[in-house]
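May I ask for whichever protein you like with its backbone structure tokens?
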Amino acid sequence: MRKISANDDVMTTREAGEILGVAVRTVQLWVEAGVLPAWRTAGGHRRIARSAVEKLMAERQKDLSPASAIPAITHPVLKLLLVEDDPLLLRLFSGVVAAWNFPVELHTATNGFDGLVRIGEMRPDIVVTDLVMPGMDGFEMLRALKKPGSGFSSLKLLVISALSTDEISVRGGLPDGVTCFQKPVNYAKLETLVHKYFTDRLQRSAIA
């Protein structure tokens, strides 16, 4: 790995990506969203403290422990990330997804900050997120993902929220292209939408 000769405690986004095992653009997204604290040099280049990278790497290794590892899957599967802070709803959603008649690899995060980390790691096909969460909420996460140049502008985003349409509007609304389901969720309708996305993706892959 290339080192910065002036200061071994400071890293470039490329060096951070090499250590964390993600693309440079993912590191840049994490920096812009506040997942990785960084600053800019006089020349406009991002610099990241090595301690911040090591802290994030330790957190990722804990999340990806052998007990939680998902076995390799060789058949087509839809990667879905659920961002939700309520443990009861996380368990409910996991049970609902397990009953779907198409293969889904479900990952979870408990706030927008963790959601962005997971998105950068696993590159999901679909993200389902709550809006009101501690720390970085769903609104902030969605705006970071839809920001021009984020590299995730085409990611399929679904919202599950108890907020009314007016309450969502007061908080700045949702980015274009985000589908919203009101709580209590119509899980049959959600399954239909996700299944359609899955079959469309398979068709696109077959054509390619």
